[in-house]
Amino acid sequence: MTAGGEEYDLLNRVPAGYSSEPDAALARQELGLRIQRALQTLTPRERVIFELKHYHGLKLRTIGAIVSTSEQAVKTSLFRATRKMRAGLADMRAAALARHEPVAATSARVQGEGQILATTHS
């Protein structure tokens, strides 16, 4: 009960999509750490472009205006960043495929971590 006499229900305060499965929570945490490590392999320019595209959903032309470069240069940087991210997370994708999980199911889990891999699996 709260100080005002209202019943306090913790279960109703659990965010949507939360899993009480310890293995799932650990896997999500590991994935988040791996994504952060993979992001650290990018150059500052690649990281900014990658994050603007995948975290913020901006169009390439808009990203070009933000970083003061051409749309083609943004495409090139985004391609390089995506290639590095794929390489950094390749073993996780291979493990999911070895467990016979469809790639779409793997992508759905990753999208909860900022939609980073949504394009790396297509």
What is the compact description of this entry?
This protein has 122 residues and is mainly alpha-helical. The chain is 61% helix and 0% strand.
Which sequence of SSEs, written as H and E, runs from N to C?
Answer: HHHHH
Helix/strand-derived class? mainly alpha
| Rg | 18 Å
Strand segment count: 0
How much beta, percentage-wise? under 5%
- CATH architectural designation of the domain at 42-122: Orthogonal Bundle
CATH third-tier fold name of the domain at 42-122: Arc Repressor Mutant, subunit A
What is the 3D shape? elongated
Largest sheet data: none
Q: Which residues sit in consecutive blocks of at least 5 with pLDDT less than 50? A: 104-122
Kindly state the percentage of residues in helix.
55-70%
Termini gap: 49 Å
- Could you name the CATH class of the domain at 42-122? Mainly Alpha
Oligomerization state of this entry?
A: single chain
Mean pLDDT metric: 76
Count of helix runs: 5
